[in-house]
TrEMBL record:
InterPro entries: AAA+_ATPase, ABC_transporter-like_ATP-bd, ABC_transporter-like_CS, FeS-cluster_ATPase_SufC, P-loop_NTPase. The keyword Protein biosynthesis does not apply. Keywords: ATP-binding, Nucleotide-binding. Residues 2-242 form the ABC transporter domain. The keyword ATP-binding applies. GO terms for molecular function: ATP binding; ATP hydrolysis activity. Gene3D superfamilies: P-loop containing nucleotide triphosphate hydrolases (3.40.50.300). It holds the Pfam family ABC_tran. This is ABC-type transport system involved in Fe-S cluster assembly, ATPase component. It comes from the Archaea.
Length: 248
């Protein structure tokens, strides 16, 4: 479904991704791990078409179509969604209005029907109806921001959901509900590309369900089965890189 081929990407004139290859098949679950600054967020934002990222080489295919130069909303219409590492505050836009508008645009659902869907789905993520009248992310805690990203995903049911550190800055209770909901989406057929540098969020998942890709300095240097997450946690990236000769 998603094929990233020899992708080189620059930000502010500096090359950050130096030839990334990764494929995600229909309904598959892939994990990207890697030290801070290795280019994980750059890859995620490039796949959804963030204008700051300049593709210098390679291409991104989605269901066989070259989407490398498509605007972000066209990628969203094709079923690609990114849950952001740092979701931004949108002053003046209420959650309910925002989600109703998104559901109307992407899925053609009318406002009244959307309202009920949103309230019902939000309950499962501990948002009360009154919470939905708040402005998007304004004054939200880390856990609330990440749960709101998951709420959008549950409502949209994208074909491919990219999650950029959904586990960073969240309390343990939020972590477990987020983890369960990701699994739920996957079970319903959404392909997952999950970026993390901890294994915690994968604890309840059967390691045979997913594959792990490890990034270093703008490249994916290792691909392994799900059990590899434990090994990374025990050894740390530095040791892993020494052992695979990835430092050369
Ligand atoms: P990760 O998500 O793996 O922590 P990022 O993709 O955020 O890594 O960043 C990769 C590298 O790109 C880092 O060295 C970072 O400093 C650099 N970078 C990211 N965004 C910008 C930017 N807007 N301008 C310049 N450098 C950037
Ligand atoms: Mg980082
Ligand atoms: Mg990042």
């Amino acid at each position: 479904m998603l094929n990233v081929e020899n992708l080189k990407v620059a930000v502010g004139g500096k090359e950050i991704l130096k030839g990334v290859n990764i494929s995600v098949g229909d309904g598959e679950f892939h994990v990207i791990m890697g030290p801070n600054g290795s280019g994980k967020s750059t890859l995620a934002l490039t796949i959804v078409g963030h204008p700051r990222y300049e593709v210098r080489n390679g291409r991104i295919l989605f269901n066989g179509e070259d989407i490398t130069d498509l605007p972000p909303d066209e990628r969203a219409k094709r079923g690609i969604m990114l849950a952001f590492q740092h979701p931004e505050e949108v002053e003046g836009v209420r959650i309910m209005e925002f989600l109703q508008q998104v559901l109307a645009e992407v899925k053609g659902i009318d406002l009244a029907e959307a309202y009920d869907m949103i309230v019902e789905t939000a309950k499962g993520l501990w948002f009360k109806e009154e919470d939905l009248m708040r402005y998007v992310n304004v004054g939200f805690s880390g856990g609330e921001r990440k749960r709101f990203e998951i709420l959008q995903a549950l409502l949209l049911e994208p074909k491919l959901l990219i999650l950029d550190e959904p586990d960073s800055g969240v309390d343990v209770d939020s972590l477990s509900v987020i983890s369960r909901k990701i699994d739920e989406l996957h079970e319903k057929g959404t392909a997952i590309l999950l970026i993390t540098h901890y294994g915690r969020i994968l604890q309840h998942l059967d390691p045979s369900k997913f594959r792990v890709h490890v990034m270093k300095d703008g490249r994916i240097v290792l691909e392994r089965g799900g059990e590899f997450v434990k090994e990374i946690e025990e050894k740390g990236f530095q040791k892993i890189f020494e052992e695979c000769g990835c430092d050369e």
